[in-house]
Structures are given as structure tokens and as C-alpha cells.
Write a structure and sequence with these properties.
single chain; alpha+beta; 434 Repressor (Amino-terminal Domain); two-stranded antiparallel ribbon; 2 strands; elongated
Amino acid sequence: MNKKMSYTWHLRTLMAERGHFATSDLVPLLAERGIHLSREQVYRMVTTTPQRLSLDVLAALCDILDVDTSDLIEITTADVSVAKPAGATETGHAPPVRRTTIRRPTSS
């Protein structure tokens, strides 16, 4: 069994719960904390789950919304079974390949 990590980004929900309905509301609040992002960057960060996020931005968002990181990012893990390749043994390895020898008929 392998573990599959996933996470849910709750920024938009937390913003709405605190009365911030426009993504542009965050631009000046982030700037007050030394984070200078364009309106487009903030929009993408709010409307989609970021793949990369600096700790400075994460700390600023937590401060603005008065939340912990666990409120903003919900991390989940799930056990995932990995399919074995056809012909795999109990160890998960395929058996060794046996080479075929082609012999031409000899003329008599």
C-alpha cells in the first residue's frame, strides 16, 4: 500500500466567512504585511489551489484571516493499492525474461 497525499485550500471560504467577498480586498491587506502581489496573482491564489506558496504569504494570510495554517490547508492521506504488473511475483517484480532462440532449418 502507498499513501496518496491531497489537500483542500479553504482561502475563499474563510474570506467569505470574514466578509471579504472580492479577491482584490486582499491586495492592500497583504501589502500592509510586506507582500506585494498583483490583483491577478491574488485572484489565482483565491480561486484555485496553489501548487506553490511562500511561507511569507501563508503567514500573512493566516494573520489577515486570524486562522491557523490547518484552517487554511486541510491535508488528507489515503491508502492506495498499487496494481502489480501482469505476471508479477509476490515480491512485486516481474519474472526474468527468457530469450527465445530462433533456429533456421538446416538443408540436407
